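Please, does this match?
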Amino acid sequence: MDLTAERQSVPLSDGNHIPLLGLGTYGDPRTTPRGTALECVKLAIDVGYRHFDGALVYFNEHEVGQAIREKIADGTVQRKDIFYCGKLWNTFHPPELVNQLWRGH
């Protein structure tokens, strides 16, 4: 495994690579101002992060997604460069609920 500064990732069995360092996007929704995740993810992409950790219960996935879309649109990254790790609470595992959440309903 090549873990040099140029290649800070681990290969997966499907041929993709997951970056070793990722940015966690949790912020307490009661105390974190809206837009914080959006700006943090955009800045993180600008400085080289490509791995992002999020979850439905963080209540900011829309901001994380918007930041990634904006950085793709401005040419900073391509979708294939981003590794997003999302977590789904156990009560949302039935297929009909996963589909609703995935589609943003």
